[in-house]
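Structure in, sequence out. Go:
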């Protein structure tokens, strides 16, 4: 232990060590007692602790300090996911000054403290650091919080109002104390009516019909707290920025090049466009033109602050919540056909082997020759109707594909669901988006430009916001090895783990069911990608340096990379008559806070992904609600002790099959094999298995589906009997006709005596 200071106080290192190792909350009193501090020394200790707080070493209050960026010894946690029977949680209150994301804490469960944990559970726990992470020991379960909850008003048989949640992770309804003018069946926002769980909720905002066209995205926006209204100051600044001239002074004039933008048919904006032609060396010269957003959005202004707050655009089937106001995102910055636009141009020299041999970045003026939908571009190439420009792009891509094959990035076949709406906002079609060569062409050009941006900044050197995807942790690899052992496949942990290793593993599997199992297991072993100023490579793409450069209209990370390129290559342009700050590079503050900003935008990216996925789930459930009772081809995607999850093939709707519905025999959960095994028959339900299931329920408001298994004759298997069901706490009523919770209503299940039954569905971590 470090020596004490000259005034008898413990050193900063001693205090930090005590806070981290104490088995109880470490406040000023506990620190004073531990180091024998008395009398006037307590005043000096108080000042020392204040100084440590200002220096960013500790956080908390005088009754319980914790290391800055750390977790208090005793705190409230919320369970975020349950993987293979093991729970992981985050602190309920987490608002560090540096904006860092909350730590993921492994929870050591104590079944005597309230039973197995589920997603959404609140617990009081004693935490401790374990290696580079945290683990928590459950002290007791806490009642659920309902602040800011969203749901639908239901009226039970006695006329009492209840809030039925629209989040499938919340499985119980709450009593409504004050309707606030809301009526039965309306979507509302509520807040807690008191401190206790039984105090109920009060309606604070009426949102309208939850099943009206385009309501599902509004639910996700409100639930996830996505900013969707621009401050007037930001709108005014956007109007001013839009008037900046697309000057050719000191900009490279590329208007003569037939650059094309290949995008989805329903694209709301166009970030990127590409061009290529053969060169004398047997390779290709290419240009990847990207919207020059940094020219219009200057650091430190209201527009920049709002863009950083949003972090990214969020895309829903019926709308987009843009990172930038529409005048920029859909007009001035967007690379529209036949219009002169400010662009950041990445010039690439591609060798015959597909490797990028050199790159150069300029600010340019471009005039997009054509905006083409992926399907149209593919059709032209397939039919031989492509012009010289498209043929050159495909030829250059064939070279890039050689280099990609040599790298052998992780090859996971992950279908993307696509929801098509009609003019009234109703669902016209739900299908898996077709994967075309046209998608791969654009993707490989974008990857090449992203790599070039990262390496160009490294060459200066200059700050880089990397897109990082770390290789799987040893813990995940051990779990994968144990799983593969269950069906005779080996994974040697002593070797270098590469994407090629996983690809070979999947190619070696010929049985389609087993291949699906292996692919699912490999996917589960991967880490989550994030943004950061420190380079740790991109494992999935098999790249040593990777940044996001190609979508600055919809990603703040890309805007930061553009600003760094402006500084590094002295690309600042004069803006005649502009009333905005002239600097369009990185500000000094941004340079100092790049880590904090990266953490924040990684968090907003995860928020957007969850909101988009939730919305798609609701649309799919609404689409399927008219097909309840039909049989579908499905694949098992997850198994737990309480049942298994299955997804409909070529559609993607995920639903639960409770273990209680699998028949009269007892099914044992084999954690290592991720399977449920019947003790009498040996019938097994394992991840990757394909089987026909009957759709029993489809709840559009929560996005939850429920399936039933079928016997050899195609009839539902008789569920296990004598299993008591959990009952909700609502008083029984005589039943009420009309409104939600009745047959033919919004899809809520019916409880006994006609009252609404609590939604009980276990959500799966995706």
């Amino acid at each position: 232990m470090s020596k004490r200071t000259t005034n008898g106080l413990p050193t900063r290192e001693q205090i930090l060590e005590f806070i981290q190792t104490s088995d109880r909350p470490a406040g000023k009193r506990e620190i004073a007692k531990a180091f024998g501090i008395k009398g006037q020394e307590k005043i000096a200790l108080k000042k020392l602790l204040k100084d440590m707080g200002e220096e960013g070493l500790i956080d908390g209050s005088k009754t319980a300090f914790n290391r800055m960026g750390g977790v208090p010894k005793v705190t409230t946690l919320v369970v975020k996911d349950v993987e293979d029977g093991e729970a992981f949680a985050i602190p309920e209150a987490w608002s560090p000054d540096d904006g860092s994301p909350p730590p993921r804490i492994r929870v050591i469960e104590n079944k005597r403290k309230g039973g197995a944990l589920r997603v959404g559970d609140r617990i009081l726990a004693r935490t401790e650091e374990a290696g580079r992470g945290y683990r928590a020991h459950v002290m007791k379960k806490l009642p659920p919080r309902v602040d800011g909850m969203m749901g639908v008003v239901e009226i039970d048989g006695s006329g009492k109002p209840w809030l039925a949640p629209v989040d499938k992770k919340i499985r119980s309804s709450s009593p409504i104390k004050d309707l606030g003018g809301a009526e039965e069946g309306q979507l509302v926002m509520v807040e807690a009516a008191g401190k206790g769980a039984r105090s109920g909720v009060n309606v604070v905002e009426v949102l309208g019909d939850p099943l009206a066209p385009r309501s599902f995205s509004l639910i996700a926006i409100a639930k996830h707290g996505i900013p969707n209204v621009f401050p007037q100051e930001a709108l005014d600044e956007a109007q001013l920025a839009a008037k900046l001239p697309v000057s050719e002074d000191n900009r490279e004039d590329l208007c003569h090049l037939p650059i094309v933008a290949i995008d989805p048919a329903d694209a709301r904006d166009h970030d990127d466009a590409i061009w290529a032609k053969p060169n004398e060396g047997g390779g290709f010269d290419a240009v990847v033109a990207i919207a020059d957003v940094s020219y219009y959005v200057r650091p430190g202004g209201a527009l920049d602050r709002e863009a950083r707050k949003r972090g990214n655009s969020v895309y829903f089937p019926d709308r987009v919540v843009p990172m930038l106001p529409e005048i920029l995102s859909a007009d001035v910055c967007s690379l529209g056909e036949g219009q002169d636009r400010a662009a950041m141009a990445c010039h690439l020299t591609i060798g015959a082997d597909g490797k990028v041999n050199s790159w150069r970045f300029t600010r340019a003026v471009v005039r997009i020759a054509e905006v083409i939908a992926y399907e149209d571009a593919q059709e032209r190439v397939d039919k031989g109707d492509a012009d010289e420009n498209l043929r050159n792009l495909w030829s250059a891509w064939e070279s890039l594909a050689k280099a990609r094959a040599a790298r052998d990035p992780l090859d996971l076949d992950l279908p993307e669901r696509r929801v098509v709406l009609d003019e009234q906002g109703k669902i016209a079609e739900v299908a898996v988006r077709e994967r075309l060569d046209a998608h791969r062409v654009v993707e490989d050009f974008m990857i090449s430009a992203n790599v070039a941006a990262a390496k160009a900044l490294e060459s200066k050197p200059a700050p880089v916001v990397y897109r990082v995807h770390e290789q799987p942790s040893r813990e995940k690899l051990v779990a994968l090895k144990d799983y593969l052992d269950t069906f005779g496949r080996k994974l040697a942990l002593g070797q270098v783990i590469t994407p090629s290793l996983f690809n070979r593993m999947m190619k070696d599997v010929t049985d389609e069911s087993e291949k699906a199992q292996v692919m699912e297991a490999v996917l589960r072993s991967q880490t989550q990608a994030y943004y950061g100023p420190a380079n740790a490579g991109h494992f999935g793409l098999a790249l040593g340096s990777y940044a996001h450069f190609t979508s600055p209209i919809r990603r703040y990370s890309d805007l930061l990379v553009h600003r760094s390129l402006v500084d590094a290559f002295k690309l600042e342009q004069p803006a005649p008559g502009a009333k905005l700050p002239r600097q369009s590079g990185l500000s000094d503050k941004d340079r100092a806070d790049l880590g904090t900003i990266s953490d924040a935008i990684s968090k907003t990216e995860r928020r957007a992904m969850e909101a988009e996925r939730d919305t798609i789930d609701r649309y799919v459930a609404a689409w399927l609600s008219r097909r309840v009772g039909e049989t579908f081809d499905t694949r098992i995607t997850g198994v737990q002790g309480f049942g298994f999850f299955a997804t409909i093939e070529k559609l993607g709707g995920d639903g639960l099959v409770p273990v209680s519905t699998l028949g009269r025999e007892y099914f044992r959960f084999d954690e290592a094999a991720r399977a449920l095994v019947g003790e009498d028959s040996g019938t097994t339900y394992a991840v990757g298995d394909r089987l026909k299931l009957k759709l029993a329920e489809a709840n559009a408001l929560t996005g939850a589906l429920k399936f039933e298994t079928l016997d050899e004759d195609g009839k539902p298997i008789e569920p296990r009997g004598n299993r008591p069901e959990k009952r909700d706490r609502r008083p029984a009523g005589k039943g009420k006709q009309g409104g939600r919770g009745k047959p033919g209503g919004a899809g809520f299940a019916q409880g006994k005596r006609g009252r609404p039954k609590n939604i009980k569905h276990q959500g799966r971590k995706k």
